[in-house]
Amino acid sequence: MRAVVCPELGPLEGLVVEERESLVPGEGQVVVDVRAAGVNFVDGLICQGKYQIKPPTPFVPGSEVAGQVSAIGAGVSGFEVGDRVIAFTGFGGFAEQAVVPALSLIPMPDTVDFAQAATLLQSYCTVLFTLTRRTTLSPGEWVLVLGAGGGIGLAATDVATALGGRVIAAASTPDKLEAARAVGAEATIAYEEEDLKVRAREISGGGVDVVVDSVGGRHSEAALRATRQFGRFCVLGFASGPIASIPLNLVLLNNRTVVGVDWGGWTFQDPMDNRALIGELMELVGSARLHPAHPAEYRLSEAAAVMGGLIDRSVGGKAVLVP
Ligand SMILES: NC(=O)c1ccc[n+]([C@@H]2O[C@H](COP(=O)([O-])OP(=O)(O)OC[C@H]3O[C@@H](n4cnc5c(N)ncnc54)[C@H](OP(=O)(O)O)[C@@H]3O)[C@@H](O)[C@H]2O)c1
Description:
It contains eleven helices and 15 strands. It is α/β, with parallel strands linked by helices. The chain folds into two domains: 2-120 and 292-321, Alpha-Beta Complex (Quinone Oxidoreductase, Chain A, domain 1); 122-264, NAD(P)-binding Rossmann-like Domain (Rossmann fold). The strands form three sheets. Strands 3, 4, 5, 6, 7, 14 and 15 form a seven-stranded mixed β-sheet that branches. Strands 10-9-8-11-12-13 form a six-stranded parallel β-sheet, sandwiched between helices. It starts with a strand and ends with a strand. It binds NADP nicotinamide-adenine-dinucleotide phosphate.
């Protein structure tokens, strides 16, 4: 089977596609024939050695897949060969096959195809965790989503809309803003050209209730200033690079709250609670209350280019590798 291999942490150009032995499931494991592997911003950071998790090399990147069960190890029940499943692999997803513990397999809802399913876990779980565990969202509240055309941004727009929120999408290009509108954004702000604080206050009639910030940099302070009384500013990431330093008086004013979000860390500390979160997500997807964007599809050999495109901002929306 073919797999994308990262021989050592460093420039993405170093990635290679290798032919490897077919995988055999151990006890409690299942082999999944990967139909699509979700590509996330963080995958590129990991391969470059710029993320807090530094795996031993060589390794196969790719943290989430959708596919079909092709082999079942001893002691596994509840799954059959051919079942359509989603799995969080951690590593090993950018390949024709992935081996995963049966306990981490999730039956794939019929409402999505393999490509959509392969992009659900990381970004949608992060956002559902943000809007239901780290803060709550009441119907009718305004949510300002930064980087709304990216992976987290599209998921935030979709989830916030499903929870009854009214989304203002902020992004850099018309294409990204249009993508956010397609998953539910009610209004848009081209934040490289327009005044983010002024426009967000205008659109929301005084200020937004929640900010979802996975971008960081210069937009963070403007977004915090755009929140109204009791506003919640959720810090998810720093895709633009710089981590904003924000004067704390802005938190005092208007009784605002800054909310840190570390979904990945929480999954290790509270795996059972994460199972419940995934269950809620699958219920929302299965009942068609969420409408995941259809990702752009690439070949395994394009893994480095796609990860590079997410990091240099040239690839927008969701992306998957189709082995
Ligand atoms: N806290 C958590 O638990 C958690 C979980 C998953 C991911 N994350 C983090 O969330 C961040 C976003 O992840 P993602 O998967 O949504 O990434 P993505 O799909 O690449 O989207 C990131 C967005 O950031 C914006 N951006 C602004 N300046 C940028 C720059 N200089 N370079 C790249 N992007 C820039 C881009 O939108 P515009 O072009 O419109 O500005 C882009 O669409 C990452 O930092 C990731 O590590 C955090």
